[in-house]
Amino acid sequence: MLRVALLLAAAASAAATDLHHAARAGDLERVKALLASGVDVNQRDVLGGTALHDAAWSGERAIVEYLIARGADVGAKHSEAGSTPLHYAVITNHVEIVTLLLERGADIDARYRSGSSALHLAANRGYRPMVELLLARGASVHVKDAAGGTPLDEAAWKGHAEIVKLLISRGASVQVRNQDSGETPLHEAAVKGHPEVVAILLDAGADPNARDNSGATPLDEALRYRH
Predict the structure, then answer these.
(1) Of 145, 167, 173, 192, which is most buried, counting CB atoms within 10 Å of its CB?
(2) What would the pLDDT profile of 11-40 be if each residue is shown by its tens digit?
(3) CB 12 within 8 A of CB 46
(4) pTM of the entire predicted model
(5) Structural domain total, the chain
(6) Where are the alpha helices (H) located in 104-184, listed in sequence order?
């Protein structure tokens, strides 16, 4: 009996893996067949994600819609990273999928275990249309990750000038400090050598004399990294 149970469990696991592969590949008919055979729509793969994570990653709208219609959890968190299907769609810049997930109840402020929100991810990657969508849907510009970093920190660090402008225009503070390092967005831009972002932050009122937890100013950081 134990052997039979183990074989059945292995078969169920293989079917679930097939579901994930089919979702990522955009094979709607295979997805339908697997779910019709009894595969759990919210079954996790060995990495801790659901089929909806895979479909969102690949931008497969028809499959995302079908999985949700069959009961897929739009707020399912990856077992390891804590990421949701919304995070996956943001990372891969699928605006249409993000819109759909939000319409179906996805939490716009859900966090990774690192504390990153969807807006952190979009700002880090410089995805302006995605940032605009998230802001229009109510994402907070003040949200902080586990280290105390904001979406503005992410954009400043990466040198995404247009995103920096957009976030500031929506109320992001240029004086906010990372709770671990004490750095401001101006420190971030100075460290990485982004003069356009530095100028935008200064124009918005950033303090050029702000000191981080080590006592360094943005100018100190720029000189240290030879910018």
Answers:
(1) 167
(2) 334 545 899 999 999 999 999 999 999 999
(3) no
(4) 0.90
(5) 2
(6) 118-125, 128-136, 151-158, 161-169
